[in-house]
Amino acid sequence: MRDNVPNRGAFAMLAYRDVLVHTWFAAICRWLLMNNHSPLSNLHGFPMLFAVSTRPRFVSFALIGWLCLAAAHAAEVELSPPVSKTEAASGEPTAVKALLICGGCCHDYQNQKEIISEGLSKSVGPIDWTIIQYAGEREVHADVYQSKDWIKGFDLVVHNECFGGVTDPDFVKGIVAAHVENQIPAMVIHCSMHSYRNSSAADTWRNFLGVTSVRHEKSKQSMLVEPTAAGKSHPVLASLGGENWETVNGELYIINQVWPGATVLATAFSNETNKAEPVIWTNQVEGTRVFGTTIGHHNETMLDPKYQSILADGWKWAMKQE
Ligand SMILES: [Zn+2]
To answer: Is 85 exposed, middle or buried (0-12, 13-18, 19+ CB in 10 A)?
Structure first.
């Protein structure tokens, strides 16, 4: 967009040229007048103005005024900001480009892709979505990841995938490498935490996610989400105001390990393990931001305004907009 707009250097050159032209023109006129060479000096009606020898003070004032006008004009040109015509015409912020990858086993990705993308667009502003949904099997090697440059052009990637049967270690490492090498933030939701869990590169994926999990509670039920001390003051959980949140329904993931870059923001108590299981967190991997939540099995829970707010604030944190 800026290619059509002169830069500040060009404005400075223009100003300098203006002063030079005005100054030379003024000097030549003054020389002509002082030496009585002006063809205008004898014209009827103009002698008062151009009879320099009899009115030197008047001409000096005129010249100073002329130079002042030239300088003011030059200053005005120089200080004009380089406004992009495109921005001025639309007045709209540029849409962020996001990729949403979903599919695999066990969930209603057909509707979840809409719930996630529409909710985020409504909350965080214009998003140019690319949504890829794969078949409902856990062994799907998502072809989007096959290209080395698959992540280029996106500002953020949402992983809501359930590919627990994929084991190819190079394939798994490639997904993480694309994020980290290009510093593209991620949001990882629910079954993404169980994807690639049987791969020898599973820990590379888990270090990226921020947690290790290989199973969930047997029963599905409402869960009480409790902010941790870190979560109470964290922008990602601002919508909870430090209070607990009882979800409509839920499938609680059992967390075996929290990785060093992760900060747990909320937990839910498991009656199976008799301990508080992390359910919302942030993670940082070599400077790449990852927002994660294991909440997201049931559409009705994802449609809860509190879940939508947490997703939106997770997006803002991942994008460093908090
Ligand atoms: Zn689930």
So the answer is: exposed
Instruction: Give 88 Cα–ligand 1 centroid separation in angstroms.
Output: 46
Distance 306 CA to ligand 1 centre (A): 19
Q: Are 172 and 202 in contact (CB under 8 A)?
A: yes
Q: How far, in Å, is the centroid of ligand 1 from the Cα of 160?
A: 11
Which CATH fold topology does 96-318 show? Rossmann fold (3.40.50)
Inter-residue contact 281 to 213 (CB < 8 Å): no
Say which DSSP state 106 is in: S
Q: What is the structure's pLDDT at 50?
A: 37
What's the CA-to-centroid distance between 47 and ligand 1, angstroms?
A: 96
Q: What is the pLDDT of residues 21-58, one digit of tens each?
A: 444 544 544 544 444 444 444 333 333 333 343 344 54
How far does the centroid of ligand 1 lie from the alpha carbon of residue 174, in Å?
25
CA of 247 to the centre of ligand 1 (A): 14
Question: pTM higher than 0.85 for the full model?
Answer: no
Distance 179 CA to ligand 1 centre (A): 24
Q: Are 249 and 222 in contact (CB under 8 A)?
A: yes
What is the 42 CA–ligand 1 centroid distance (Å)? 98
pLDDT tens-digit map of 175-209: 999 999 999 999 999 999 999 999 999 999 999 99
What values do phi and psi take at 26, rounded to 5? -65, -40
Integer Cα distance of 289 and 271 in angstroms: 31
pLDDT above 50 (res 9): no
CB distance 281 to 265 below 8 Å: yes
Maximum pairwise Cα distance, the chain: 110
Sequence spans of domains, the chain: 2-88, 96-318
**What is the 297 CA–ligand 1 centroid distance (Å)?**
4
